[in-house]
Amino acid sequence: MRPRVPVIAGNWKMYKSVAQTLDFFEKFKPLVARADHCEIVIAPPFPALAAAAEAARGTRIRIAAQNLHWGSEGAYTGEVSGPMLAAAGCSHVIIGHSERRQYFGETDQTVNRRLSAALAAGLIPLLCIGETLPEREAGQTESVLIRQLEGALAALTPAEFSPILVAYEPVWAIGTGRTATPEMAADAHRVIRDRVGRLFGRAASEKLRILYGGSVKPDNIKGLMARPEIDGALVGGASLDPLAMAAIVNF
Ligand code: 13P
Fold it and tell me: Which domains does the chain carry?
């Protein structure tokens, strides 16, 4: 028996129009109709969120945005707020993805502000952390994970922390076809759970779902999910294909 209900999430990044989103859901829904062993989350780009939420209505599939601003409204051209995402039918939001840290100036401090805004809007944050290849090679994986966690979660209470999901996504494994081995992922997940225990107590750490992300495919999901430390997956490229994503959900 698994200690926690798994979460399989798909991050579509900057892929799929509304029409392509509807096509995905038409094919994906029947393939996961009986998948009650896990929670399923799909994160389309902003313009497709409402259509995805409508297409997923009445199913167990939940919809996530890929980012949010920390304000609720205001003169911030190009930004989208938590209340807007909730109103569009989102239940979850990805925060702090490495692509946002790498290309859009995201820091642990802005991640922290976005996390608080997501919680205030009643959204479940999917917090992404992970080391780069030079950091891993320099033996800094553990310290990077701890710094990102502590920065993101600064000043939260255990009650505020409780809905949060964490995704461990080693940057060197994203979009490279180079997956972390189940052992490497499990080691990182133990570091994360241990730190959450120190910050928010043992009950919070035992309840926390930690997802692995980075080149997850239908042919490696089973090995990853065989580890009790790994509570699910955050899937990029393979989540764009309804057949591949369904195979991953039905691991
Ligand atoms: P890939 O599965 O394409 O490596 O992407 C992982 C990811 O970044 C999910 O957020």
Answer: 7-249 (3.20.20.70)
| Amino acid making up residue 12 | W
The CB of 67 under 6 Å from ligand 1? The reply is: no
pTM over 0.85? The answer is yes
Closest CA to 20 of 248, 242, 246: 242
CB 28 within 8 A of CB 245: yes
Q: Catalytic pick from 106, 169, 189, 229?
A: 169
Give the tens place of pLDDT for each residue, 80-99: 999 999 999 999 999 999 99
Q: Does residue 39 have an active-site annotation?
A: no
From 210, 235, 248, mutation site for ligand 1 pocket: most ligand atoms within 8 A of C-beta:
235
